[in-house]
């Protein structure tokens, strides 16, 4: 329940905030950049907002699919703005059942018209990501580290779309993302930020 409450708080903060990280906003390397922002700690993990930025000038993404591999025994308690394609074996959990127990989850965007309480800013476009725009979702991750010293970056990222192949580099620990409130009177920042760069490989 505490993890769910924390996730709801982060959802509200992100809905009222905008991304202000200049190093990403003004990047123009013709790639897909994924930012994994840890927003707060929970009793057994953290809540993160994951955002994919399309820095390709003339190439839209016609429905993205994202995947990675956990390096510990992490589970996804809940998602907002996206879902995993499979839950996996969560039989060892007796009461609260995770959204996903798969070590290499596959995540897809939600459809337009998704109920508002299941949305986050910049979600729910069926994975369509036009040049210069972004797509986001939120994860509550459990069985994970609960501090900057114990949380582990996911690895082996993949980013795909129909008739498009991308090659993703390693996950990197970068300067935490900064957020500014809608009234522009307060700046906050992520606890940690991990960055993944995916380069277009070929059309299929």
UniProtKB/TrEMBL annotation:
<dbReference type="Pfam" id="PF04833">
    <property type="entry name" value="COBRA"/>
</dbReference>
<keyword id="KW-0325">Glycoprotein</keyword>
<keyword id="KW-0732">Signal</keyword>
<dbReference type="InterPro" id="IPR006918">
    <property type="entry name" value="COBRA_pln"/>
</dbReference>
<protein>
    <submittedName>
        <fullName>COBRA-like protein 5</fullName>
    </submittedName>
</protein>
<comment type="similarity">
    <text>Belongs to the COBRA family.</text>
</comment>
<feature type="signal peptide">
    <location>
        <begin position="1"/>
        <end position="24"/>
    </location>
</feature>
